[in-house]
Design brief:
By secondary structure, this protein is mostly helical. It has 6 helices and no strands. The two termini are 31 Å apart. It is elongated and about 45 Å long. It has one domain: Ferritin (Up-down Bundle).
């Protein structure tokens, strides 16, 4: 039964990811919503991993939660200061659905493969986020404060990716 749930979640996740398209030129309002969705997804998957038996995985999960919440606060502050109201896009809606499926699939992952699955998700998510930052968010941000924050956030996403890859390599030994 658990295996069937994982297979269904994986199939739905793949379908959602395959259908996700980034708006050609998202508005600042859509960009703010996309960043919020990325943050929420990372927080949710990391909250699920915060109960890992592995100390390093728990620490990484807590770091992801803290830093993504911090980024969310910064984005909210820039949006509020510049009167940028969040606006859903096809991408942000699909990302929310995909994120929920990823958390659900992680929660039913057996303990023996849980840490690997969590790190795989982090790596996939951060690689996708870097592409989205580079190809869509930063080039299309019109507000200069938002653009600067996105550039700073991109650096943090790259660091998260490296940490997850490093821990994954350590656990594989």
């Amino acid at each position: 039964m658990m295996r069937q749930i994982v297979l269904i979640c994986t199939a739905l996740l793949s379908a959602a990811a395959a259908g996700a398209s980034v708006p050609a030129k998202p508005s600042d309002a859509q960009i703010v919503q996309i960043v919020e969705t990325v943050n929420d997804n990372e927080i949710n998957v990391s909250e699920a991993a915060a109960a890992s038996a592995n100390k390093e995985v728990r620490e990484l999960a807590e770091e992801m939660i803290t830093q993504h919440r911090d980024l969310g606060s910064k984005v909210d502050a820039v949006a509020g200061k510049n009167d940028i109201k969040k606006e859903e896009s096809t991408l942000s809606v699909k990302m929310k659905a995909s994120g929920a499926l990823r958390v659900a699939s992680l929660k039913v992952t057996p303990d023996a493969s849980f840490d690997k699955k969590y790190l795989d998700l982090l790596i996939d998510d951060h690689e996708a986020a870097l592409k989205t930052f580079d190809r869509t968010l930063i080039p299309n941000a019109k507000n200069q404060q938002l653009k600067a924050l996105l550039a700073s956030a991109r650096k943090q996403v790259a660091l998260h990716l490296e940490k997850a890859k490093h821990l994954q390599a350590e656990l594989a030994r």
